Amino acid sequence: MARTPFLEKKWSVRTLGAAFIALMLFLVWVTYAFFDKKFVSSEPVFITTQSTGVNLPQNADVKLRGMIVGEVRKIEPNGDGVKLTLAMNPDLLKEVPRDVTAQILPKTLFGEKFVSLIPEKDASAAKLRPGDTITQASVPIEVEELLNDAYPLLTAVDPANLSYTLTAVSDALSGRGTELGETLVSLNSYLKELNPDVPQLVTDLDTLGTVADGYADAMPDLGRLLTNAVTTGNTVVEKKSELAAFFDEGSRLADTLTDFTAANADNLKTLSSQSRPFLEMLGDYSPTFPCFLGGLKELIPRLDSAFRDQMLHINLKVVAQPTAYKEDEILKGTQADFDAASTGTPAKNGKDVRPDNAALPTCLDLDQITPAAKAANEALAKGDQAEFKKQQAKLENLSSQSHPFAVPAAVYKLVNIKSDHNKYGDGFRVAPASATNGSFFSPAGTEALRTLLGAAVGTAPDQVPDLATLLLAPAIQGAGVSVE
């Protein structure tokens, strides 16, 4: 049996056909891969922008200073913007600054676009790295958009008038290219100087709007103010003669004060310097003024009661009279002693008086006596004799010659007092004088006192009133008369 040639076998022909088709497909893929640069190594870098415009094809060039450093591999939507994936040349990526900005520019007026990487003038030393994203990207105005915006204008203008206008503009600019260029250069320099201040200008305009709104809100008040100012101005005009007289009097008063101060400047200085110690003393004793004045307030009704009906009403009592100080009771304290006795806190009651506060001003006696006196006055005004006598007895026990207000020993030591002299109490109290041991209460003593008083006033002894001997006898004996 003869052998069948290889090419005449069915399976061999089919195998060769399939291999040929596979080879053709492989060659097509290789061609596409070379065209798509599948065999070229690259590093991905991303750009985010609001829009890419039109005519930005895939595989568009990416240039840095006019040199191709990569190409656009993918364009896809990204939220409200567009995301571009760039395939950067690994060898050139290290030459691209990291803070570059991107612009999508056309190669020709109506041609396709490319991505231009623009480095900053003071670019940092850091370089762009694989996977970085360039967020500062912009697209210049599209020619199509310019033509679309210009089309309504061109259709609205009559061609003849447009031709006439353009001809006039051409004639006006003819031969003035140098001047026009210089003008544009000057304008460009002005704009460069103004550009840094534009943000501040915008802020100022925005603030001006806020201020204007404030003035608009306040305008009704300003209107009322101006209206009132008119009334005020009219009043000033009507009263101008009185104002002139007032200013004249003010000028004369100022002149008089000037002359007075010039003539008495030294006296005023002397008065101020001499008044200072007195005022300082008043300042030290100022805590006692309220209680002193309060005591006077309570004393006035008692005086009015004693001198009621234009007559003096008295209760005659024989009380012990104060005795004279002795020679060894002369004040020996120095200013330092009184200063040392004024360093403590003021006493709150009689038992609280100490050597460090014995010289401080105090109203301890009036603080205790005034409430009782006030209660006695109120009882007298109401006609309550029982309550009045009760309060009078309380006053008698609080402070009287028979029951003097107790003075702490610290005060005695400060002023060198060694006995109560019938008025200080606190252990120094002596028995009050008695009416039975006074010789002037005997008949012989009374007659002798009449003779003494008659000789003193130039009248006969039998003409001397009994009241005179009654009042004078206790005083001579060492007693006194109290008025209630």
How would you describe this structure to a colleague?
The chain has 484 residues and is an alpha/beta fold. It has 14 helices and eight strands. Among the domains are: 29 residues; 100 residues; 145 residues, no CATH class. The C terminus is likely disordered. The longest helix is centred in the middle third of the chain and has 45 residues. The chain is elongated.
What's the tally of helices? Answer: 14
| Helix coverage percent | 40-55%
Task: State the major sheet.
Answer: 8 strands, mixed
Shape, principal axes of CA atoms: elongated
Mean pLDDT, as a whole number?
A: 75
Topology as a string of helices (H) and strands (E) = HEEEEHEEEEHHHHHHHHHHHH
SS-derived structural category: alpha/beta
